Amino acid sequence: MATTTKRPQTPEQLLLQQHLRQVRKAAKMTQVELAEKLEKPQSYISKIESGDRGVSVIEARAYCKACKYDFAKFVRAWDKDLQETE
Protein backbone atom coordinates (compact mmCIF):
# COMPACT_ATOMS: atom_id res chain seq x y z
CA MET A 1 0.00 0.00 0.00
CA ALA A 2 1.39 3.40 -0.99
CA THR A 3 1.54 6.21 1.52
CA THR A 4 0.94 9.81 0.64
CA THR A 5 3.28 12.45 1.93
CA LYS A 6 1.80 15.88 2.41
CA ARG A 7 3.85 18.75 0.99
CA PRO A 8 5.71 20.80 3.61
CA GLN A 9 3.98 24.14 3.94
CA THR A 10 5.60 27.49 4.44
CA PRO A 11 3.91 30.25 6.46
CA GLU A 12 3.22 32.00 3.14
CA GLN A 13 1.43 28.95 1.75
CA LEU A 14 -0.59 28.45 4.93
CA LEU A 15 -1.76 32.06 4.85
CA LEU A 16 -2.57 31.82 1.15
CA GLN A 17 -4.75 28.76 1.75
CA GLN A 18 -6.46 30.48 4.65
CA HIS A 19 -7.16 33.62 2.62
CA LEU A 20 -8.52 31.65 -0.34
CA ARG A 21 -10.83 29.68 1.96
CA GLN A 22 -12.04 32.94 3.55
CA VAL A 23 -12.77 34.44 0.12
CA ARG A 24 -14.85 31.40 -0.85
CA LYS A 25 -16.73 31.38 2.44
CA ALA A 26 -17.35 35.15 2.28
CA ALA A 27 -18.93 34.52 -1.12
CA LYS A 28 -21.13 31.89 0.60
CA MET A 29 -19.96 29.26 -1.85
CA THR A 30 -19.27 25.61 -1.28
CA GLN A 31 -16.22 23.94 -2.73
CA VAL A 32 -18.52 22.25 -5.24
CA GLU A 33 -20.05 25.56 -6.38
CA LEU A 34 -16.64 27.20 -6.77
CA ALA A 35 -15.28 24.18 -8.63
CA GLU A 36 -18.21 24.36 -11.06
CA LYS A 37 -17.52 28.05 -11.75
CA LEU A 38 -13.86 27.24 -12.39
CA GLU A 39 -14.78 24.16 -14.44
CA LYS A 40 -12.64 22.00 -12.16
CA PRO A 41 -13.44 19.01 -9.96
CA GLN A 42 -14.27 19.67 -6.30
CA SER A 43 -11.06 17.88 -5.35
CA TYR A 44 -9.12 20.74 -7.03
CA ILE A 45 -10.55 23.23 -4.51
CA SER A 46 -10.12 20.83 -1.62
CA LYS A 47 -6.47 20.20 -2.46
CA ILE A 48 -5.73 23.92 -2.73
CA GLU A 49 -7.43 24.73 0.58
CA SER A 50 -5.77 21.83 2.40
CA GLY A 51 -2.31 22.50 1.00
CA ASP A 52 -2.06 19.29 -1.00
CA ARG A 53 -1.74 21.39 -4.14
CA GLY A 54 0.11 24.63 -4.72
CA VAL A 55 -1.59 27.51 -6.47
CA SER A 56 -0.23 29.93 -9.04
CA VAL A 57 -0.98 33.64 -9.14
CA ILE A 58 -3.15 33.00 -12.20
CA GLU A 59 -5.15 30.36 -10.33
CA ALA A 60 -5.52 32.57 -7.24
CA ARG A 61 -6.82 35.38 -9.46
CA ALA A 62 -9.36 33.04 -11.09
CA TYR A 63 -10.40 31.84 -7.63
CA CYS A 64 -11.02 35.43 -6.50
CA LYS A 65 -12.79 36.36 -9.72
CA ALA A 66 -15.15 33.38 -9.41
CA CYS A 67 -15.96 34.54 -5.88
CA LYS A 68 -16.44 38.14 -7.09
CA TYR A 69 -13.59 39.31 -4.87
CA ASP A 70 -11.10 41.96 -5.92
CA PHE A 71 -7.76 40.25 -6.53
CA ALA A 72 -5.67 43.34 -5.68
CA LYS A 73 -7.48 43.60 -2.33
CA PHE A 74 -6.80 39.88 -1.78
CA VAL A 75 -3.07 40.29 -2.42
CA ARG A 76 -2.85 43.35 -0.16
CA ALA A 77 -4.58 41.53 2.71
CA TRP A 78 -2.40 38.44 2.26
CA ASP A 79 0.76 40.57 2.15
CA LYS A 80 -0.29 42.54 5.24
CA ASP A 81 -0.80 39.31 7.18
CA LEU A 82 2.57 38.02 5.98
CA GLN A 83 4.31 41.17 7.21
CA GLU A 84 2.69 40.72 10.62
CA THR A 85 4.21 37.25 10.92
CA GLU A 86 7.75 38.34 10.04
What would your notes on this structure say?
With 86 residues, the protein is mainly alpha-helical. It has one domain (11-85): lambda repressor-like DNA-binding domains (434 Repressor (Amino-terminal Domain)). It is 67% helix and 0% strand. α1 crosses α5 (71-85) and α2 packs across α3. It is globular and about 35 Å long. The model has no long low-confidence stretch (mean pLDDT 91).
Q: Which helices and strands, and how do they pair?
A:
Elements: H1 11-26, H2 31-38, H3 42-50, H4 57-66, H5 71-85
Helix pairs in contact: 1-5, 2-3
How much helix, percentage-wise, in residues? 55-70%
In terms of DSSP E residues, the strand content is: under 5%
Helix and strand composition category: mainly alpha
Number of discrete domains: 1
What name is given to the CATH topology?
Answer: 434 Repressor (Amino-terminal Domain)
CATH class: Mainly Alpha
Distance between the termini: 40 Å
Overall, the morphology is globular
Low-confidence stretches: none
User: What CATH architecture label applies?
Assistant: Orthogonal Bundle
**If you average the pLDDT, what whole number results?**
91
Find the count of extended strands (DSSP E, 2+ residues): 0
* Biggest sheet features: none
**Quaternary structure annotation:** single chain
Order of helices and strands: HHHHH
Query: Measured on Cα atoms, how large is the radius of gyration?
Result: 13 Å
CATH superfamily: lambda repressor-like DNA-binding domains
